[in-house]
Write a structure and sequence with these properties.
- The complex is a heterodimer.
- Chain A is of the alpha+beta class.
- Chain A contains four helices and six strands; from the N terminus they run H-H-H-E-E-H-E-E-E-E.
- Helix content of chain A is 34%, strand content 38%.
- A six-stranded mixed β-sheet of chain A has the order 2-1-6-5-4-3, with helices on one face.
- By secondary structure, chain B is of the alpha+beta class.
- Helix content of chain B is 52%, strand content 18%.
- Chain B has a five-stranded antiparallel β-sheet. In chain B, strands 10-9-13-12-11 form a five-stranded antiparallel β-sheet. In chain B, strands 15-14-18-17-16 form a five-stranded antiparallel β-sheet, with helices on both faces.
- The longest helix of chain B has 63 residues.
- Chain B is elongated, with a radius of gyration of 46 Å.
- Classes of the chains: A alpha+beta, B alpha+beta.
- Chains A and B meet through helix 1, strand 1, strand 2, helix 4 and strand 4 of A and helix 8 and helix 15 of B.
Chain lengths: 151, 1294
């Protein structure tokens, strides 16, 4: 009887945990735009900008390519897989807490799309700003981030 | 009531009390934290001033520590130099050596003569001689000295020798004003040190004149030196209440997560007994998995231990995977997950072994077993794929390059990841092994041969399934060969466990070794994939310059530079004549070093101009043609505008990007900054060779493979236009690339043979301005020595962990450890074999190192000879030529970087920009100066260092006319290509010698086993003889003395047996004789009066005596008495002849059985003992029981049995010992006779064994009987009554 009670307790405890813990992260899938490629690219940059503004990596993790290049103010520099990219950016946002991010210059060029802007952040109580550069490239038919620079 | 509650918490339940207490603490902490936060908010102002004071106090202390260290060092140095100057053997060499001791390696030391001339200096010279006087501070007073790139904390002291006053300037670097993104950079930054420590932003000003900040959000305080004078100022952002509250919340969170961890742990302790009482193993393992999973999830949600640890182990850059929602998001999280995995896999493995032990024998292989085995095979293949996927993730989701880093000893994150790799591999091997053993356990046959046959069939079936599994996958992770190899390794492990040593603790060691092999092979396999992927990336990057990125980098560099306070101050001071222009080159370098220009290892430059566009400072690295921004930007409107332009060079392989920005301060233009990037396809890695200490390893092209290992060919419309690397492709090879079948993505993979070496080639076809461009990137296939190096590099690290595990096991088993003969032999063999190998390796390495140094010396000497000869020739042919021009021509002619010194000062360098930037000293290396000028050496080779990079410098004298120079060349700038470097040798050494060591260990183990085997057998046999088994006979296949020894032993036991039998016979005879004598003697006594009585009776009858009746009666009585006497004698003797009683005592049957079985360990028979309880107490004679079992086992061996199964079970009041074998059995006709005395079917033997066994057992109320069996062999069943007074304890399976 006791054993049953404990077994049930375990099952209850286990099932009350977040059930998606063993599933893959819910990746954001870029929307297929009925408009032109330029509009699509524009939308993608806006989505990325919004994700950075909210400090929410999940909303932009769907755009990470298998090899994304990061160059960040915390010294992170190099190519990272899509798995790593998620946590690298998450850690960055924890230290350099976003105040605002604005991509002022979006170039939705199909051959080489990129955007630049300013990233305002709070670092150890001090407000500073950094330059942002994001470029995209096509990978397996979808647009993915090839490089993010925040310096 | 209370008593009832207390009773609930006894035994294991007491841990629940602790759990409740912990939960209570968690609740309390949740309630208290907001109270603390509220109190903090209300008292913030008071607390803030306290915090500010504390920070100020601690920063000042940190500064004082450095100051005290400097003063102490200066005093020590002064004392030493005093001894030098005042000694009788005063020499310049002693002075130089004292100043350049290793103790002062971190300092800059300068000794000036009374006339102000620098006479001795260390490698680093902080203050130029001309800046020392007039002294700005008092003697012994500390101050900050700002050199171009570094700020020093300096103290000037004096040394009076006779009447001469020498000056000693000791400087400790406090802050570097530049930063390099590469592994050689040595960070020295006081500002960063205190920023990191106090988690707020600091600014340090190392001048006396700065005023305190007026920004209310910041706080400033002065830095006072040892004389109480202000020498600097520290400003920091005041701690914010938000940050403080966050800190408090984080502390509470950490506290609660630790408590949660403990609570969950104690729950397990509390449920321990209940867990043990569960009968079904499958339920137990399921509960364990649930518990471990829950525990892991709890740890993840509470952030434990990542919220406590810091540093690279929690940095996702080193490794990160999104699998499981983040339970492997960093090396530390991966390690925690692996700990749980290992626990589950070990328990699963133990349960399978336990199941194997307790499974009833001779159960047939049922249909559902076949189904179950099929499921297990699927699970096996899935597990193998899971392991492969994990290893792929380790390679692809990590920036650690396990095979690229040439250092044999890895750094800490690599060590943690290697441990993770080993742990996950070991878990997989244990699980896979468990699947195999479980499948084998369903087929239980007493015949070992049949079992091995089944094992072989099963192996083939799994291999076939593996083959199909790989083929049917769309994207198989591993090849068929690797699948075959891994399955074989795991089956090897399972074979060892199942057939050889089931219960050995060292099986975990074997599992780890197997795991190490498998994981390293997988890592190597996926690393190759990654390298191939990187060829694609390289092809993409070299195809076109990333214009937008370069624009961005220039924009970022210029914007950051224009807002740099240091730069603004410098330009301001230059404009108004306060600063020396030479510092601008250093400032330009500082700007360049902190920008992406250095991070990306780009050919680039940074330059400063005054407001009239006159250049006042520059740092240029790799830009070959001077780019003058004045030409492009002068006259453009706007004071605050930034301009960036692209300039196409005449050389089509080069494109230049240039930018310019004005530097403004309060609306006043102080000057301009420009930055430029040159993209050159010809020199991809880093333009004009960037020295290693400036090159960034994380540039796009360098991230996976060192770009210098690559060869790149670029074709335009089928004609080769660019080559990167030192190989030119032949026409055939060119055709192969051009005509390769490009797939839909316009890419293809090839394997090319260039100069008899094979290259993996990625080729991509693109279009550019109507031209077909083909870019082929080639990587040489790794040589065998590198493959061995790759393998052993990781294997050695894994071995370290395995050795640690082995030591732990040995410590646990220390009381059982015997330094046996085998162990002694093995130690001796290893010592004799490995020691010379190590000595040889060290010696060879020394030789190679010396040869390498000699070769470097020769190469550098050769270079300097060419230069010197060229300079001489120039000056002879053109006597009016300026020396500097001659030096410049020589540098250009030979494309060699070198410097020229006159006296001790640098007068020329072909790498002027590095000296102007302040990276190198303008003074000659002091020891070189001493050797060349005082010891009159003509040339010298010396080790030098910049940042953490060591290099070789060669200096040679040059006399021209009446001037003496010293020419210096080094391999920091001039790469010396050696045929065989120390590194190459290390690779060879490490790889091949590691293999040799392993072979030595294997062979030594085999030899030790072989040599010690007869000794071990002899030891066991002697033990058996001591326990009464004289039927032992050792198989003798040995040679030499061992053969004689074994023969002697066999003869001895044989003789002992015969002698024992003869002795017994003799003793029996003597006993019988004695008894007969005794009987005869006793019988004679009554016989004499009987004879007399009968004689008297006869005489009386014959004489016809009248009292015949009374005589008859009297004599009858006499006769009857004597007959009674005889009867009594007979009874006594009969009682005497009875067998002696047994020595009955309380014994535990199980260890007696096991000890007896151990006597036959070295015999060619497998004996298994099965019992489902820990103890079996009975009243019996231990020795008789042992003899009985020995006898039965010996009978089985003599009947040809190869396995015996002894099963101890319990039935009512008896213990049953069932002994069955697979021998030839007992013929039907003999079954009734085997318990009879003198019955035997053996050639030798008295036929008493079973008879005595039966007698003994019946004597203790037990029994023995021969069972009827359907299978071949014999089975006996022995019953022994249980001990009545003590209950035998049943603890269940642990």
């Amino acid at each position: 009887m006791k054993s049953c009670f404990y077994i049930l307790s375990f099952i209850f405890l286990f099932s009350s945990m977040d059930s998606k813990i063993f599933s893959q992260e819910n990746r954001l899938v870029p929307k297929n735009s009925v408009n032109s490629q330029r509009n699509l690219l524009q939308n993608i940059f806006v989505e990325i900008e919004s994700g950075i503004n909210s400090g929410n990596v999940s909303s932009i993790s769907g755009f990470f390519s298998p090899h994304t290049y990061f160059s960040l103010s915390n010294g992170t520099s190099g190519y990272y897989s899509s798995n790593q990219a998620y946590y690298v950016l998450e850690d960055f946002f924890k230290i350099y807490q976003v105040i605002s991010c604005r991509l002022q210059n979006i170039q939705p060029d199909e051959t080489n799309p990129y955007a630049t802007g300013i990233y305002h952040y709070d670092f150890k109580g001090k407000r500073e700003k950094a330059q942002v550069y994001i470029s995209l490239k096509k990978s397996a038919g979808t647009w993915k981030i090839s490089q993010i620079t925040i310096n | 009531m209370l008593k009832k509650i207390f009773n609930m918490f006894k035994d294991d339940r007491k841990y629940f009390a602790i759990v409740f207490f912990i939960l209570f603490l968690i609740v309390i902490s949740g309630i208290i934290t907001p109270i603390f936060i509220k109190e903090k908010t209300e008292n913030w102002n008071k607390e803030l001033s306290g915090k500010i004071s504390k920070i100020e106090f601690e920063v000042i202390n940190l500064y004082k520590d450095k100051e005290n260290e400097l003063i102490k060092t200066s005093s020590e140095l002064k004392a030493k130099l005093h001894r030098v100057f005042t000694s009788k053997n005063i020499s310049y060499g002693r002075l130089i050596r004292n100043v350049n001791r290793d103790l002062y390696a971190d300092y800059s030391v300068e000794v000036l003569a009374p006339n102000g001339k620098l006479i001795a200096w260390s490698d680093n010279v902080a203050m130029p001689q001309e800046e020392v006087f007039p002294l700005e501070f008092e003697i012994g007073e500390c101050y900050f000295y700002r050199a171009p790139l570094i700020t020093y904390l300096t103290v000037t002291d004096t040394l009076l020798v006779d009447s001469d006053l020498f000056y000693i300037i000791t400087s400790l670097p406090i802050e570097k004003h530049y930063s390099l993104h590469n592994p050689y950079f040595r960070e020295i930054n006081f500002t960063k040190e205190i920023s990191d420590r106090f988690y707020t932003t600091f600014e340090a000003n190392y001048s006396q004149s700065d005023r305190k900040t007026k920004d209310g959000r910041k706080y400033s305080f002065d830095l006072l030196n040892n004389r109480g004078n202000k020498i600097g100022q520290i400003t920091f952002s005041k701690p914010m209440i938000d940050a403080s509250i966050n800190e408090l919340k984080q502390g509470a969170s950490v506290f609660q997560s630790v408590l949660s961890f403990l609570a969950y742990l104690f729950i397990a302790f509390g449920l321990r007994k209940d867990f043990r009482d569960i009968k079904f193993r499958s339920i137990k393992i399921l509960l364990l998995i649930l518990y471990c999973s829950g525990f892991r999830i709890l740890l993840y949600y509470t952030g434990f231990p990542s919220n406590i640890l810091g540093g690279p182990v929690v940095d996702p850059a080193y490794f990160s995977s999104a699998f499981g929602g983040g339970i492997v998001k960093s090396p530390a999280e991966f390690l925690v997950t692996n700990i749980f995995l290992i626990i589950i896999s070990i328990e699963a493995y133990r349960y399978v072994l336990d199941y194997l032990r307790s499974r009833k024998k001779n159960k047939s292989f049922a249909w559902f077993h076949i189904l179950f085995v099929a499921v297990l095979i699927v699970l096996m293949l899935t597990t193998l794929r899971g392991l492969s996927a994990a290893m792929r993730s380790v390679i692809f989701d990590s920036t650690l390059r396990y095979f690229r880093d040439i250092n044999i000893l890895p750094d800490f994150p690599s060590m943690v990841m290697n441990l993770n790799i080993l742990m996950i591999g070991t878990s997989a091997v244990l699980i896979l092994g468990s699947y195999i053993i479980l499948s084998l356990s369903f087929y239980q046959s007493p015949e070992r041969k049949k079992l091995k046959l089944f094992f072989a069939y099963f192996f083939i079936a799994v291999q076939a399934a593996g083959f199909i599994y790989v083929l049917v996958q769309e994207q198989p992770l591993i090849s068929v060969f690797l699948s075959f190899l891994f399955i074989s390794i795991v089956f090897g492990f399972a074979y060892h466990v199942f057939f050889l040593k089931r219960k050995s603790i060292y099986n975990y060691i074997y599992a780890s070794l197997a795991a190490s092999f498998i994981t390293i092979i997988l890592l190597n396999h996926f690393n190759l994939e990654l390298e191939k992927e990187s060829l694609k990336t390289t092809a993409l990057e070299v195809n076109r310059p990333n214009e937008n990125l370069f624009r961005f980098i220039l924009n970022e560099t210029l914007t950051n530079a224009a807002g740099n306070d240091d730069l603004i101050n410098l330009l301001y001071m230059i404009k108004y004549g306060f600063a020396e222009p030479y510092r601008t080159d250093a400032a330009a370098f500082a700007i360049w070093s902190r920008s992406s220009l250095q991070k990306e290892s780009l050919n680039s430059s940074v330059a400063f101009y005054d407001s009239s566009f006159n250049e006042i400072g520059e740092f240029n690295l790799g830009i070959t043609e001077a780019i003058n921004p004045v030409y492009y930007f002068k006259g453009l409107a706007g004071d605050d505008e930034k301009f960036i332009r692209i300039i196409n060079s005449k050389d089509s392989s080069k494109i230049d990007f240039i930018g310019l920005i004005p530097v403004m301060e309060n609306g006043e233009k102080l000057g301009y900054i420009s930055a430029a990037i040159e993209f050159d396809l010809q020199n991809l890695s880093s333009g004009e060779e960037i020295p290693d200490f400036l090159e960034s390893p994380t540039s796009i092209l360098n991230s996976v493979i060192d770009i210098e290992q690559l060869k790149i060919f670029r074709f335009t419309n089928s004609k080769i236009t660019h080559i990167y690397g030192d190989i030119f492709p032949s026409r055939d090879e060119t055709k192969l690339i051009i005509n390769a079948g490009y797939a839909g993505d316009n890419e293809t993979w090839l394997r090319l043979n260039l100069n008899e070496e094979y290259y993996i080639t990625y080729s991509q076809r693109t279009e550019e301005n109507g031209n077909e461009i083909i870019t082929a990137v080639l990587l040489k296939e790794k040589q065998i020595s590198w493959n061995l190096f790759n393998f052993f590099k990781l294997f050695i690290i894994h071995s370290l962990f395995i050795v640690i595990l082995l030591i732990i096991f040995l410590v646990i088993q220390l009381k059982y450890f015997r330094y046996s003969f085998r162990a002694q032999l093995l130690t001796a063999f290893l010592f004799i074999s490995i020691l010379p190998v190590i000595i040889l390796a060290v010696y060879n390495r020394e030789i190679v190192q010396q040869k390498t140094e000699t070769e470097i010396f020769n190469k550098l000497n050769e270079s300097s000879d060419y230069l010197i000869n060229h300079i001489h020739a120039q000056l002879e042919n053109h006597p009016q030529r300026d020396y500097l021009e001659a030096f410049e021509n020589a540098a250009r002619e030979f494309n060699t970087s070198f410097g020229v010194y006159e006296s001790s000062d640098l007068i020329y360098s072909s790498k002027k920009q590095f000296y102007d930037a302040g990276l190198f000293n303008l003074k000659m290396n002091p020891l070189v100066y001493f050797n060349l000028n005082y010891l009159s050496y003509r040339e010298i080779l010396t080790k030098e260092k910049i940042e953490n990079l060591e290099y070789d410098g060669f200096y040679k004298k040059l006399a021209v006319g009446n001037r003496n120079f010293v020419v210096g060349v080094n391999n920091a700038f001039n790469k010396v290509n050696l045929f065989y470097t120390t590194l190459d040798f290390d690779v060879f050494l490490f790889g091949v010698y590691s293999l040799a060591t392993i072979v030595i260990i294997i062979i030594s183990t085999i030899l030790a086993n072989k040599i010690s085997s007869p000794v071990r057998r002899l030891t066991k046999a002697t033990n058996s003889v001591a326990h009464g088994d004289l039927n032992v006979e050792l198989e003798n296949k040995e040679r030499g003395e061992m053969k004689e020894l074994l023969n002697g032993f066999n003869f001895m036991t044989n003789q002992l047996q015969k002698n024992q039998a003869e002795l017994a016979e003799m003793e029996r005879e003597i006993a019988w004789k004695e008894m007969a004598k005794q009987v005869a003697h006793e019988i004679k006594n009554p016989l004499t009066p009987m004879k007399l009585a009968v004689q008297q009776l006869i005489a009386s009858y014959k004489e016809k005596k009248g009292n015949f009746d009374s005589i008859f009666e009297k004599l009858s009585v006499t006769l009857l008495n004597q007959i009674e006497s005889l009867s009594l004698i007979a009874s006594e003797f009969s009682r005497f002849a009875r067998m002696p009683k047994f020595k009955v005592e309380n014994i535990d049957i199980i260890p007696v059985v096991k000890d007896t079985v151990n006597l036959f360990q070295d015999e060619n028979i497998k004996i298994t003992v099965q019992h489902s309880f820990e103890n079996a107490f009975a009243e019996a004679d231990q020795i008789q029981l042992r003899r009985l079992l020995i006898n039965m086992i010996r009978n089985s061996i003599q009947a040809g049995a190869t396995s015996i199964n002894i099963e101890i079970s319990s039935e009512n009041d008896y213990y049953k010992i069932s002994v069955s074998d697979n021998g030839k059995g007992i013929p039907e006709e003999f079954k009734n006779k085997i318990f009879e005395a003198d019955f035997t079917t053996k050639e030798k033997g008295m036929g008493l064994g079973l008879k005595l066994a039966k007698r003994y057992l019946e004597g203790i109320n037990g029994s023995i009987k021969l069972m009827n069996t359907a299978v071949k062999g014999a089975e006996f069943e022995i019953t022994i009554p249980k001990l009545k007074k003590k209950e035998s304890s049943y603890t269940g399976i642990s």
